[in-house]
Amino acid sequence: MKFGQLMSKIEELLINSYVNETAKMELKNFSKLVLENKNASNMFYIYTELSKKKGLSKEIAEAYINESIKQIEKILPRLNTQKIEYWVQNVVCENNYSDIDNIVYSSPNKIMETVTSKKTLIGLLSESSEVKSHINLPIETLLNVANKSIKGFIDNLDEDSKRDLSKVLMTEDVELSKEFDELKSKTIGKLSNITESLDEITSKKLQETIEQIQSDTFSKINYVRLYNLHNNL
Fold first, then answer.
1. I need a labelling partner for 151 at 20 to 30 A (CA). Which of 14, 20, 119, 176 fits?
2. 22 to each of 6, 19, 27, 51, how far by Cα in Å?
3. Whole-angstrom Cα distance, residue 195 to residue 208?
4. Which residue, 51, 4, 35, is CA-closest to 170?
5. DSSP class of residue 148?
6. Closest to 171 measured CA to CA, from 219, 129, 128, 232
7. pLDDT for 114-162, tens place per residue?
8. Considering the entire predicted model, what is its pTM?
9. What are the extents of the domains in the chain?
10. What is the SS3 assignment for 72?
């Protein structure tokens, strides 16, 4: 199995584990099968970095891709993913890293596909990660998102947000829990300072949301939900 497809399956499994309440077990599997597998973890890191917006010049972006592929070519002969593939064998999902796979697993009869994928990756790496468009959503919509069930929240995420969620699920709890407390304070502050005219129903929902955030304890899904709410206020 191509590594990008395998990585997509892992991310899908981890996201769904929160809906199925099997996150603790699946994160242990991820740690054992991927993080403790040096070659797999290195591949995971390279693929992740190649899929990020870095604000590079096109020249540097191309050089970055070429060097990354060289490193991958060194890892592939030693890479054993048999146990990982068995772990995610029942997961069905799209390949979110098909452009990287097209370059890594290129062949003489797919040259155009490789060139097109490389051009796409150069474009992605050239985009700035700092410039984010701010979407002015109605406060009613934001509060509905904040109060969604875990399943409802995940089901309504776009593909980029789901990918962000999967990365959060793989980050150490200690690091995220500190950020979570700060995020709670900032979000409650923003909600408390909303000055737009609200009807009685929305005002009540706003207060309920503040109370919910105050009572929320740290979990990775709560972190992502709060992060999305904060960034859209």
1. 176
2. 20, 8, 9, 27
3. 17
4. 35
5. -
6. 219
7. 999 999 999 999 998 644 443 343 444 444 444 445 555 566 666 666 6
8. 0.65
9. 3-126, 139-232
10. helix
